[in-house]
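Deliverable D5.2: sample structural annotation.
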Amino acid sequence: MARNEYFKYRELAELRARVAELGLFGDIGFVDEVHPGAGERLFASPAKFGPFELSNRLVAHPMEGWDCDPATGALTADAVRRWRRMAESGASLLWGMEAMAVGFDYRANGRQLVLIRDNLGSLADGMKAVREAHASSPNSGNRLAVGAQITCSGRYSSGRRPGAPLLLTYHHPELDQRVGGGPDTPLMSDAQMEDLAGLYAASARVAREAGFDFIDIKSCHRYWLNETLAAKTRPGKYGGSFENRAKILFMIIDAVKRELGNDFPLGVRLNLYDGVPYEEDPETRRPGLKGRGRLSPYQVPYLWGWGVNENDPLQPDLAEPIRLAGMLGERGIKMINTSVGSPYSNPHMQRPTDTPPVDGYQPFRDPLIDVAIHIALTRELKRAHPEISVVGTGFTYFRNFKAQAMEYCLRNKWMDAVGVGRALLSYPDELRMLVEKGEAIPGKGRQVCTGDSSCTTGPRLGLKSGCVFDPYYMDVMKDIRNRMKSLGLGGK
């Protein structure tokens, strides 16, 4: 399979034809024109989102750079550069900047930002840089709301101290072994889980003092809080029933509210569907290329996923995510940013692309199918809870046609705002250009994201996250190419 086999569309008509061929027109659509003066452009229009009055409906998702200080967990010059560029992006809502761990043992990697009081000065300086960058940018007249995404990485806490135990919430028959565990690995105790509520509250206070406008309690991508929601096989008071599995998330929300008061805004980045694990099929490898993805073995009924149909786990079941969203709304949380899947166990779904990262696999189906999953599930959540402000995800794969797809979703009220993530690494002010000109014209250091995946391959190889089109990361990209060649990868 050659790289970039699927996305071959130079004209919107070609992309529409492929969407129709795949039977996805009920979930994916495009408007004809998004240039200024062409008519209604909701993505570029002011809107109320949760408690915030936004200048547009464009959102920058949290993006880690794997570039914070490994000893202190504080921001570095590389990280602040990323933050400044997000502030200049044109997005009116910066959902979480990047995932920020509540402590050192809860990092997904050894260079993740740690949201503790010792780093308050670093965080405050970072937020000052964000405000200054926004004020001096062409979109300085836009209102800007900035969140802090707080997380515990759970089973994926690879940045924990040497010798620290695995943080398994429940046993997964496939994923335990992928992180070095097994059926006899001790689970996190109830007390350990309860103690984390205090760490979340302490991190939230630091974030507010540093100048953030809201807190995002990360509950996606199979990190810890996502897994607490999926812990059907966990024994005791935090496993089994939906009510038990939701207790820890609500405990953390209550702890944060006690710390910050009921009026400080909270949001949740929520997985709507975990899916099932996939793996590379080594029989389909070709010279220089990974093999196609294939399903890992699974059992039915499938009892190890959130938003998953137990009798047919390849299909979502939104009953519990929709129920949870209603309960979050009752607790005053009126902002949800949606996602699906995991970057570790089914990356084709979590971040649709033609070109996988080094630990991934080649697409085994058209990635438009996975884009449609993002959009369709977000639409159903919004229909069930029109009172909640919802951010939609999955638009990067549309490349030059993302604005046409975003506008279609907004006009049909499938979501209230539209977000992009790592695409901003390759074209940092793409969203501003879409507002101002209706298109993003490539130039030096500005290239519409092609889904190359180097920004994920780098971190998987222990390097920073950058883009092949950004001269700032030239040395990183050279290192990636050399390491990929040593692994027999890197294309034909």
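Annotation notes: The chain has one domain: 12-441. The CA atoms of residues 307 and 320 lie 6 Å apart.
The annotation will be released with the project's public dataset once the embargo ends.
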